[in-house]
Amino acid sequence: VQFVESGGGLVQPGGSLRLSCVASGFAFNSYSMGWFRQAPGEEREWIAWISTISTTTYADSVKGRFTISRDNTENTLYLQMNSLKSEDTAVYYCARHYQGGAFYLSSYDYWGQGTQVTVSS
Fold first, then answer.
1. Model pLDDT for residues 46-78, shown as the tens digit of each residue
2. What are phi and psi of 81, to 5 degrees?
3. Buried-most residue among 22, 83, 108, 111 (CB within 10 A)?
4. How many whole angstroms separate alpha carbon 89 and alpha carbon 98?
5. Residues 90 and 61 sit within 8 Å (Cβ to Cβ)
C-alpha cells in the first residue's frame, strides 16, 4: 500500500489549493479515505472523510471551505481547500480508513507521507 501526496505549497490568506493523493497497492474503490492535518506542536487532527460511494463528512473547522472527493478510476483522493486561513497551516496527510469511527487516527491503517501547506502573506 502506498500513497503519493502532492499539491501543497505557500498560499496567501483567502487563497486556494488542491491536494492530491494517488493510491496504489490495494483496491482503492473498496475503502473509505480520510484527510488529516498536523500543525507544528499540535496533535494530528481529522478534517475530512469520504466513503466508497463519495458520502462525505467534515470537521467543523473546515466545513464549507474544504471539499473532499475521489476518482476511483484514477485511484486518487483530492482535497480542495478554499478561503484558506493562517490557522490552516499544517502538514496534510491522506489515510486509508479500515474500521471504526472516521474521526479517530486509530481507524486508519496506512498513511501518506504528508504535504506541507503554508498560509501566509
1. 999 999 999 999 999 999 999 999 999 999 999
2. -120, 115
3. 108
4. 27
5. no
